[in-house]
Amino acid sequence: MSTFADRIIAFNQQLEFTGTLPDGIRIMNPFKESELAPVVSEQFYRKYYNDHHPRHLILGINPGRFGSGMTGVSFTDPKRMVNQCHIPYPGPMAHEPSSEYVYEMINAFGGISKFYEQFYIHSVCPLGFTIATNNGKEVNYNYYDMPQLQKAVYPFIIENIQKQIELGFKTDVCFCFGTGKNEAFLRKLNEEKKFFKQIVALEHPRYIMQYKSKTKKDYIAKYIREFNKVLL
Question: Which of 146, 152, 187, 222 sits a CA distance of 20 to 30 A from 228?
């Protein structure tokens, strides 16, 4: 019988967007574009998900350039992959504030092994997007930042949330990172598709690090409180 690791790795390998994106938007698929992400993420999942233990889903927005865009693991930048997960990343180091927050929270929860035994983090849209600024710099872009983009990826989002649920995750509660547009979109989608019995939204790690860093410990305590409720 396949393990969670086997199923997650297979899910990531099949990710491919075949629709048409609005002009100027580029899709970011680390499992097709990067030599490192498939190898590093497989090592990660074999280390922490090589079992049959059911878990709860946590869904962020979509992958970012300096986190899973590089490592293939949500909210895990190269720095955390090496220093926290002790998995080699033979490429350039990068720092993602969201990843810093998530791993601080995970350590407060009781450690990486304990956390990943209970939870799995991915995204509402499992592939990321970038857009070029006026000076030609490529920056992250969210699936909900443009109505045309959200419409273009809507069927892709539905298909892949369903596929993730079918990997064997619990559906009583789904956690959502983001209490603004991501939460609103996921709640509306869930009303239509009945994926989960309940959605619990938590402030997005990036928002906390950017605007609420002085009270970061309060948000970590809130996260842990909400996570522990489903484990009782």
Answer: 187
